[in-house]
């Protein structure tokens, strides 16, 4: 009689398995229960109207929610602004569909209803009028992209998107 080899066990196996399955769920937009006793890391939903506490002539003030989520995984729903080229590793997520790219010359001109999204790899983009969900790590504060010179106040990095 033939027997099956024993199933892999141990904390290292569970961590690798949880990471791989969790990564697949993130890319597919699915939620997840805990695996191997490890808690599932769910991204926090963040809406455009939660980004800033104040919008005045002196500038934008980040909301307490945005400050608390700095460096954490968030999911935002919006629209992809028309990209500068058909395939790239970044785009602008907007609250409403736009017909032109909304990048501005400085962070003092930064609109309060856009977020820059940096993907792990270059991708072909979706139509600007199709709603999408984007999940990535939130970065808060003024930053200038060294490759493009674009300035942003808020970014989602290591992000993935899917049509809704």
The shape is globular
Percent strand equals 35-45%
Largest sheet: 5 strands, mixed, barrel
Mean pLDDT: 76
Measured as a percent range, the helix fraction is: 10-25%
SSE pattern, N- to C-terminal: HEEEHEEEEE
Task: Give me the secondary-structure topology.
Layout: H1 11-28, E1 44-45, E2 52-56, E3 59-62, H2 64-69, E4 73-80, E5 87-94, E6 114-124, E7 131-144, E8 151-163
Parallel strand pairs: 1-4, 6-8
Antiparallel strand pairs: 2-3, 4-5, 4-7, 5-6, 7-8
Briefly, what is this?
The chain is mostly beta strands. The protein has 2 helices and 8 strands, in the order αβββαβββββ.
Protein described:
- The structure is a single chain.
- This protein is mostly beta strands and 164 residues long.
- Helix content is 15%, strand content 40%.
- It contains 2 helices and 8 strands, in the order H-E-E-E-H-E-E-E-E-E.
- The strands form 2 sheets. Strands 4-5-6-8-7 form a 5-stranded mixed beta barrel. Strands 2-3 form a two-stranded antiparallel ribbon.
- Strand 4 (73-80) and strand 5 (87-94) form a beta hairpin.
- The longest helix is centred in the first third of the chain and has 18 residues, at 11-28.
- It is globular.
- Residues 1-40 and 104-108 have low confidence and may be disordered.
Keywords:
single chain; 164 residues; mainly beta; five-stranded mixed barrel; 2 helices
């Amino acid at each position: 009689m033939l027997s099956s080899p024993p199933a892999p066990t141990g904390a290292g196996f569970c961590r690798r398995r949880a990471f791989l399955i969790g990564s697949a769920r993130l890319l597919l937009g699915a939620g997840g229960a805990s695996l191997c006793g490890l808690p599932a890391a769910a991204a926090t939903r963040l809406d455009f109207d939660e980004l800033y506490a104040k919008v005045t002539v002196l500038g934008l003030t980040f909301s307490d929610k945005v400050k608390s989520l700095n460096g954490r995984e968030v999911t935002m729903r919006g629209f992809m602004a028309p990209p500068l080229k058909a395939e790239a590793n970044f785009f602008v997520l907007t609250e409403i569909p736009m017909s032109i790219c909304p990048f501005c010359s400085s962070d003092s001109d930064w609109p309060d209803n856009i977020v820059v999204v940096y993907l792990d790899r270059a991708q072909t983009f979706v139509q600007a009028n199709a709603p999408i969900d984007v999940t990535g790590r939130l970065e808060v504060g003024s930053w200038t992209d060294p490759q493009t010179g674009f300035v942003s106040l808020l970014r989602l990095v290591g992000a993935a998107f899917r049509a809704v």
